[in-house]
Amino acid sequence: MEGTQTQALTSQQSPNDGTDDAPIPCPMMELSKDAGDRPAPYFPQPGDELPAQPEASMDPIGPWATGRATYTPKDGLTGVRPVVDRNSVTKFGAPQWRAHNLKFFQQSNEKIQAAQLAISNAKRCVQQSYKQADKTQLENTDHLKNRASEVYRWKIELEHVLRDITEEIEMLEAERRRVKLSLSVLTVPESIAGEFLQLRSKRLESDLIRDEVEEELTKEVALCSEIRDLLGRTREQIEMQLIELKAAKARMEVDWTDKAGAYQIDTFCVQLKNESPEILWKPGATRFPAEQSTPASYEHYTRESLTDAEAARQRSANLRSTLKAIFTNSIKDLRDQATRVDLALGGKSKLTEEVCSQLEKELLRVSVLAKFKGKSFFWCFCRHFDCFQCLHELANTEKAIEELRHSARGLDCAMKVAQTRLAERLRRENVENCRDTPQFALVEEVKMLNERTSAMLAELKKAEETQAALVKVRGDLEREIVVKRKTLYIDKQRGQLLRSFYPSATTLAGF
Asked: pTM here?
C-alpha cells in the first residue's frame, strides 16, 4: 500500500526533486549579470535615482512635434518636457522603464518561489496524508480484528449453551413421554382396585363389612388418584418448562445468527485493502442509526440471553430430578400398597376359611343337638356317643340358668341391708346429717348390687334365649357358611386372579 502511494507521489514530483526546499532565484536575473557584476542595461543602473541629464534637448516645436506637448508632474519637476507626436506620448523616462522591468522580473521570481513552496508543501502534505491514512487503516484493522475475536468468543459461548439447551430439551421431551406412558399404565392398578372393590360389594349380608382388605383397596385407589394428579401437574410443569426452553433457544439462535453475520462482516472488513476489488464509494456510510446498540448494551443483551438460558436449563434439570424422585416414591408407594393389599387379602382369605370350617363344625354340632332335643339323655347317649359333649354342654347351660335365678334372689338380702342403713342414716339431724365416707360407700354398694343383679338377670335372659334359639342358630350357620363361601370365591378365585395382572415397577415408571 505504501509502495503504491510512493509511486503515485513520485509521478507528481518535478525535475528538481534532488534540491533543497530553499527558493530558486530567477534564471534570467542570473544570466543578465556580466563579468563585472553589473546589472543588465534593461535593469536599473547606478545613478537612476538622480535627476536625468539629457545630452541634447528637443524643442517642443518642430517637424517631429506633430502633437501637443504634455508632461507628468514628476517630469515637470525634473525639467523634462516630453515631446508628443502623432505616434506616441512620452510619459516615462528611461529609469522608470528599467525600474518597471525589474518590477516584473521580481514579481515573476516571487511567483516562482511561491509555486516551488506550494509544490514542496503539497509533497509534504501528500506524504503525511498517506502516512496518516496507512496508520489509521492499520489501527482500524486491529480494532476490527479485536471486535471480530470478541464476536467469535460470544458466538462460541452461545453455541455451547445452545448445545446444552438442545440436549436438555431432548431429555425433557423423553421425560414427558415417560410421564404420559406412566399415566396410561397407572390406569391398570386403578382399574384393578376399583373392579375388586365392586366385586367385594357383592358379598352377602354379614360379610359385607369394611374390613382391612377393603380399607387397603380404598387406600390404593386414593393413592393411584393422588399419583395421577401429581403426575398430571408434573406434566403441565414439563410442558411449561419446554415452552420456556424453546423460547430461550429461539432467542439464542437469533442472537447466534446475528453474531455469525457480524463475525462474517467484520472478517470481510479485516481482509479489505486498497487493492481489493470490492471497495466502492458508499455515500452516507458514516451515519449513526438510531437503533444501534452500545458496547455496554450489546454485552448486557448477550449476557442476559446466556443467563436466562442457563437459568431455564437449571430449572429443567431440577424438574427432572424432582420427577425422578416422584417416580421413585410413587412406584415404591404403589408396590408397598399392593403388597399390603395382597397380605391383607391373604390373611382375610385364611381367616374366612377358618371361620367357614368352624361354622361347618358348629353346624354339625348344632344339627345333632337339634335332632335330639326333647329325647332322654340315655337314649341319646346310647345311639350317639359322639354327641355326648354337646348334650353335656346343654345340661350345663340349664344348670347355669337355675343357679343364676337363685343367685339373683340371693342378692336381695344384701340390697335390703344397704338400703336400710342408708334410710337410717338419713334420720340424722342438723349437721350430723353429713355426706361422709360411709354415706358414699353405702351408695356405691347399692349401685354395685343393682348392677350385679341386672347383670345376672341379663345373663339369665341370655342363657334362656340361647337355649330357645338353638334350632334357629342352625339355619343361621348354614346361611353364614354360604356367605363365607361366597366371600372366599370373590377374594380367592376372582380377586387374586385380578391382582395377578398388577403392573411391575418398570412398567409403572414408563419404560
From this structure: 0.57
